Structures are given as structure tokens and as C-alpha cells.
Amino acid sequence: MNGDGESAGRDARGFAMPRPGTGPPGAAPTADDADGGRGSQAAGPDPQPGANHGARPQLPADALVDLDEEGRALQISGLLERLDAEFVGLSPVKERVREVAALLLVDRLRARYALSSSRPSLHMCFTGSPGTGKTTMAMHMGGLLHELGYLRKGQLVTATRDDLIGQYVGHTAPKTKEVLKRAMGGVLLIDEAYYLYRPDNERDYGQEAIEILLQFMEAHRDDLVVILAGYRERMDVFFRSNPGMASRIGHHIDFPDFGICDLMQIALRMLDQEEYRLSPEAAAAFREYVGLRMRQPRFAGARSIRNAIDRLRLRQAGRLVAAGGQVSRADLAEITEADVRGSRVFSDGTAPGQPAEPSRPAQASRPDLPVYPALLVGSPDQMA
Amino acid sequence: MRITQGTFSYLPDLTADEISAQIQYAIDRGWAVAIEFTDDPHPRNVLWEMWGLPMFGLSDASAAMHEVTGCVQAWPDHYVRVSAYDASLGRQTTALSFIVNRPGHEPGFRLDRAEAGDRRISYALHPYAADRPSGERYGHPNGHRG
Predict the structure, then answer these.
(1) Which of the listed residues A106, A163, B71, B98 has the most CB atoms within 10 Å of its CB?
(2) pTM
(3) pLDDT of residue A26
(4) Residues of A in Cβ contact (< 8 Å) with B100
(5) pLDDT digit string (tens) for A127-139?
(6) Could you report how far apart the first and last alpha carbons of chain A are, in Å?
(7) Tell me, what's the pLDDT at A374?
(8) Is A228 helix (H, G, I), strand (E, B) or coil?
(9) What is the predicted pLDDT for the residue at A62?
(10) Where in chain A is the domain with CATH 1.10.8.60?
(11) What is the CATH number of domain B16-101?
């Protein structure tokens, strides 16, 4: 740090032990690992663009490069295909990731012509109705940006109000900074960010946390991606009272509500993951169920579907245990129409505004409560 | 006289990239990184002032580098060191500690001899810099109260 490190560095070659970080590539594995994904992708976060281009000579101004070949080298298309395969719908997000990937590619090519390329600001804000995949997408964003070479580590640190805001004067700043430091090199996800700011309490420490956050977002944008996620209207209110925050976030992405086809696809994928399958009649019934559920109050997109599937599993288990006797592997995996039709949603409006499943006391008092012989006998072989 | 304490102290001063690579090495091993500074580099003075709290749960060296730069800027004429604490059971000790900043001029130490009874001689190391009050020892008469 004294400035004479340069000349002294040359003398140090005489030591038998290679100095970390200065050896030839491959000689210092830790330094290489730390460089990880970006070592070969100098365009993005590298503080000295071109420093890693020793093997790639600068091209003359009139030369042509093959965009497709470069893209294949970066394996961008594979990454985008995986994104497409893993997530149903969410086209605005996919579009944005595609653009970021394209920028990376173009930046790399620009670097070969010695055109300047700086890292774009990647702070994001995800807004949308409940259950539209904001949090899930944010959790994958770190990995995506890491693979694209924009983040060195790509780890995800999730923070809520109590992780950032202290309880007494002078407690907030160190707390917020600690979370930010843990998130450096990756993604900081602040879910329901509007809770940070409480306009009704002017002595709230939320404002302090926001100021530190803003300062870090600006000063360390090469090291950190901040993603705010929350419901649309409340985020709008939040941004209105913190205009600095809105302008420092480059990507405001609105998550569209899932349509019935998307939801069905999500449901099938969830069932597939849990190794269940719907019989054809059950699939038709479930589609009907989704249509009905969507019109009910407190519908929360994919989250409602996840809950519905959990209840399907419960009903299937109840049916199997009630029937007793011998079951096959296929029986255990299959969800029948009766399981789907058993839902409260079909009995329509008995209690509008109630959750699809009745609460526990009501269930206990129901006269048609099934009796499970296997459970009463309690012999484990019958359960199997 | 150049102070040699901790790892790498016989090597030339580390550059920022080298410091960052060392910190990343510590982080990758799950060690907690802390930054300390002092203007009393006596070899027996092992507990230096802490610059902030030790940083647990980091995954990238840039966060620690941010603190290193902050500390060096606030105390440019102090010794600043990075230490990495290995909390794993059975070790629970400082695993790595190295100086990342030192004052421009290091006057060194004086050897004090004191004669006691029976012609016994006791020796003491006295840092020349310690003759001046703390905070003013290395070049800055008004100190740097960060």
C-alpha cells in the first residue's frame, strides 16, 4: 500500500514461495478461484477492462467478429434456455435477463476493439401481485448474474426490516452495514421493502437505513445488486416518499399475473417435482378448480396453487387410508378427480371470502367426517 | 526500522489486489475477518484497536476491502492489520494476521538496559515513537480522530 509495491514486487520473485495474486495464471489457485466466473469474462465487473485480454489481441477497427460464436463461448443461450424451462410465464423478467446477457456479449466484443465498457447498474425492483414469483425470481437472480459474470459470488442475502433497522439510536447504521457487507459479491434481497419506511413515525430509524442503503448502492454498484420486492401499490407509495431510491434502481420490473394456463403448468410442474400425477379427469377438474379459485378473494397466484396441491395431497392420503387394504405404487402417486372435487371451492360460496379449506373446528364438527380404519387399528403394515 | 509482525511481514508491502486475494482466502475458509489499528507497535502489544466489528458471514473480499480502505484513510499514519479468526472447534484462534498499512517513517526501537542488584541487567524495548503522546506518534501532531 506504500506505492513502492511495484518495484518491490519484482524483487520478491527471488523467494521460493510464489506471492499470492501475482503468480502466473494457475500458479495461485486461490486467487484464481476468487476470480471465478469473471476471470475469463473481463467485460463486466473487471475493474481494469482489457487486463485479462492478454491472449486476445485487440482487433483492428475494420475487423469483423462472430457474435454467435462469442455467444456460444459464453454459454448464454444455455443459461437463457434453462431460465425459460424453469420459470413459467414471467416474460418481462426473462426479457430483462436476455438484455443483460446481450449487453455482456456486446461489451465483450467492444472490449476487443478497445471500446470502453462499464458495468450497468443492476439494482432491481420487482413489483407485482402476491404469488407472481417475485421472491423466487430474486432468489435465482444471484445465480444468473453470477453465471453471466456480473457478480463475483452470486450469493443471496435476504433482509427484512428487522435485519436492517436497529432498536436504539446508533444501532441502525452498523446493522445495515453488516448486512450489506455480507451481501457484497452477491444479491441483497429486501422483501417487502416498504416496511423500511414508516411515514407515520418521524423518529423511525428506517430513514437512516434507507440512506445507508442508497449510499452503498451508489458506491458499490460493482460489488452488490440490491433487489427490492413488494406489492405494486405499496412500492409506489414507498418510492414516492423516497425518490432517491426509485432513481437509483435501473430496472423496475412488473410481474404480470399468471393466467390459468400458466397456473396449470406451474401446478403440473409442482406435482411432478413431488412425484404425484393427476389422472386425466383430475386434471380437467383441477383446471376448473383453478378457474374458480382465481375468482375468489385472497387469491395469491402460484402460492395458492402450492397450497391447493398440499391439500390435494392431504385428501389423497385421507382417501387411501380410509380405503385401507393394499395399494400400489401407482395408487400412491395418483391424484384422482375425487381428491380435486373434494375442495371447498367447488361447493361454491358456502362461505365466500373464507379460505378454500374450512377451519379446523368446523371440520371436527362435520358429521360426514371419514373414519380411517387403518389409523384406528394402528398397525403400520396396513398403513403402507 | 521496518516492523515485522504477522504473516508476510518480510515481504514487500502487499498491493491492494494482494490484500484482497488474502482476505478472499480467509473468507473462503470461513474465517471471520477483522481490521485493527494502532500507533504502538510494541511486539507485546497484541490487542490493537478494532476498526468496527469483526465481519462474520462475508462471502466476498470487497466488503472487507471497503473497511480496510476506510481504516487506512482515517489512520494513514498508523499500523493497520487484517486478522482472520478461525472459529472452528479445536482451533479457535487467529489463523492469519498481516499488516496492510504502516506509517511512512518508522523510527524503530531503543534497547534500554537497567542494572539491578547482583550486576543483573534487565532489558526493555522502547519504541521511539512512544515518546510522543498517542495519536501524534507518526508525523501528525494533531492526530486523526476518525
Answers:
(1) B71
(2) 0.69
(3) 41
(4) 1
(5) 988 888 888 888 8
(6) 69
(7) 53
(8) strand
(9) 76
(10) 260-360+369-383
(11) 3.30.190.10
ipTM exceeding the 0.90 mark: no
Of A102, A112, A49, A93, the C-alpha closest to A71 is A102
- Cell numbers 436492517 correspond to A164
What is the C-alpha separation between A180 and A226, in angstroms, rounded?
9
Fold type of domain A36-255: Rossmann fold (3.40.50)
List the beta bridge partners of residue A226.
A188
Interface check for A27 against chain B (CB to CB < 8 A): the answer is: no
| A window 169-228, beta carbon within 8 A of B | 174, 178, 180-182, 184-186, 220, 222-223
What CATH number should be reported for the domain whose range is A260-360+369-383? Answer: 1.10.8.60
* Long-range contacts (CB closer than 8 Å, 24 or more residues apart) made by A316-325: A316/A276, A318/A370, A318/A372, A321/A372, A321/A374, A321/A375, A321/A383, A322/A370, A322/A371, A322/A372, A322/A373, A324/A372, A324/A373, A324/A374, A324/A382
Considering A39-53, B26-40, B127-141, the range whose residues carry the highest mean pLDDT is B26-40
> Nearest CA to A294 among A349, A365, A364, A345?
A345
CA atoms of A302 and B3, how far apart (whole Å): 62
Which of A19, A178, A184 shows the shortest C-beta gap to B62?
A: A184
Query: φ, ψ for residue B44 (rounded to 5)?
Result: -85, -5
Task: Give pLDDT, residue A117.
Answer: 77
Instruction: Give the angle subtended at the CA of B37 by the CAs of B35 and B39, to the nearest 5°.
Output: 170
